[in-house]
């Protein structure tokens, strides 16, 4: 009898061994390359190789962490959410490019002071 070899799909570079010399994405690949924004100024093969190595090491760490048992009460409390809204008494940010209603009548003031006084005039400082 002849042994029939079952065709296997090639392993994607994301999950190849770290030492594999083919662990890089070929030129023309249009998909997402994880961790690529950390590397600059080298050839395509060396950049994608380093990015994929970083991705694989992070993936392996996360995979190992999922197998660890979780004990009740050991999770750290979530940090308090910080509001990114400006307080009402603050002026508008310097690089703001939008419309400030009523600001055309404020003349001779800095941008911050002018936007504060505009808010007061319009009754927006509640």
From TrEMBL:
PANTHER family: CAT EYE SYNDROME CRITICAL REGION PROTEIN 6, PROTEIN FAM166B. This is UPF0605 protein.
């Amino acid at each position: 009898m002849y042994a029939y070899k079952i065709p296997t799909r090639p392993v994607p570079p994301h999950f190849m061994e770290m030492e594999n010399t083919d662990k890089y994405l070929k030129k023309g690949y249009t998909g997402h390359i994880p961790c690529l924004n950390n590397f600059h100024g080298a050839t395509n093969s060396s950049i994608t190789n380093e990015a994929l190595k970083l991705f694989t090491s992070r993936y392996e760490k996360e995979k190992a962490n999922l197998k660890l048992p979780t004990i009740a009460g050991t999770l750290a409390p979530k940090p308090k959410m910080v509001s990114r809204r400006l307080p009402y008494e603050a002026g508008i940010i310097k690089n703001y490019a939008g419309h400030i209603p009523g600001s055309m009548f404020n003349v001779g003031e800095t941008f911050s002071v002018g936007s504060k006084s505009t808010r007061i005039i319009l009754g927006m400082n509640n």
